Hints:
By secondary structure, this protein is an all-alpha fold. It folds into 3 domains: 2-93, no CATH class; 104-292, Glycosyltransferase (Alpha/alpha barrel), CATH 1.50.10; 312-489, Farnesyl Diphosphate Synthase. It has 24 helices and 2 strands. The chain has helices at residues 2-7, 16-32, 34-37, 50-53, 67-76, 80-93, 104-117, 125-140, 144-147, 150-162, 178-185, 192-201, 211-229, 236-247, 254-264, 284-311, 319-342, 345-357, 369-394, 399-421, 428-438, 441-444, 457-460, 463-489, and strands spanning 271-272, 276-277. It has a two-stranded antiparallel ribbon. α7 (104-117) packs across α8 and α15 (254-264) runs antiparallel to α16.
Amino acid sequence: MVSKAIELGLNLPLDTALVDIMLSNAEHEVKRNKSHIAYVAEAFGEAHSWKEAMTHQRSNGSLFNSPATTAASLIHLHDDKSVEYLRSLLNLYGKSVPTVYPFDIYSRLCVVDTVQKLGIDRHFGVEIESVLSTTYRSWQQRNEEIFLDVKCCTSAFRLLRMHGYGVGSDALAEFVDEEQFFSTVGMQYTNTSTILELYKAAQIRIFQREPILEKIHDWTRNFLKNELLNRAICDERMRNEVEYALEFSIHNVDRVENRRSIDLYNVDNFAMLKTSHRCSSIDNGVILALAVEDFNSCQAIHREELQLLENVHFAPEFSDARIAWSKISVIATILDDMFDIDGTREELLNIIELVEKWDEYSSIGYNSERNKFVFSALYDAINNDLAPKAFAKQGRCVKHHLINMNLEMIKCMWKEFEWWTENLAPGIDEYIFNGTATIGCGIYSTVYFFLGPELAENVLSSEEYAKLNYYVGRVARPLNDYRSDVVMFSPVVV
């Protein structure tokens, strides 16, 4: 703009020496970073090689999806595809056009990422799945809008992988080498937020060895550390974001992550493209208000649940009992969901065999990553935590009891799975008898080992003990089933 003003003979109130230095630096940059300068070629006029810039033309006729750069190219070189691109924008937007177009995929991914981080994604399940399925189709088609934009590509990779879509890390292979990244990708992508997005994507590994992601993780982590050390990040929110990302894994506890995201959420947030960009259809204030209300509502429920849990053996000396109750509850819930909702027949039979073999589980092996995770959690909880602590309380090993309680529960869960899949209708007595185990009465009696009194072997095998668990189950099972139906069919009050 300064060069053009000088050509037009305008008298600018600028220091001549500074203008000369600026123009000299600009000329130097054009010679040194021609591929980078192409992105902002409209600012260099005749100083730039427009034929070289046209090598970056995309299939839609644009240069970098930038109306400005594309329009500038027409001043120097006529190209029919560029004309069609610009005409299509004017047909869509009239007298003004966006900074970058198209920008749909990245904008939608940003919304998905935002509602996930704020913890309100469960309210938008259908919409999120629609965005991701559309993005996945574009990914498979190698859509330029994804693969020619680092942020869009890495965001798509991270979110698609987190939601179970099969995307390979080879798509990020060109970002493996730091020096090559900065020399070939372009100066428009060297900002901190882009490197942070790449760093987060590199953490989503689903295989034991993914060298591409490991190398990207290493150099982006070092880059971000140096940015902090050199105080190169001026924006306070971005600095906090980077500090947190380096200190904590992306696989953090959801509610902790949600609270942090709420604290850092910027209602006035905008993206820096060629100029500032804000999506006109999204009200950040409304999103934040929903996130705060939802978080507080969930916290109220969690506090109520915690109060109920603390009322069970609340005395300080029963700390081991409370922890045992919590751990066994979490694992039982995961197992229950597997047998009730999304476990395959092969997975369920495999988990039963693993518990039956226990210390010889390696002779069975895992038929899925989920089974490995679930069994390892159960195995570690019993072998390395509950059994040793129970031994200290009881003066004898009760590990076999802990194992058998869980084995009985999952075998009864398997029976319910067969009833459901084979469309069988058990009698009420059979259903209740089986349900006393699947409701968890047996495994929750694990707590008894941590309450102080030593339980003799014959107590645990007595008829009285069995009847106690059975009658508790006769009450708990119908109540649980009734509450599930109420929750499932109750209207949502806004």
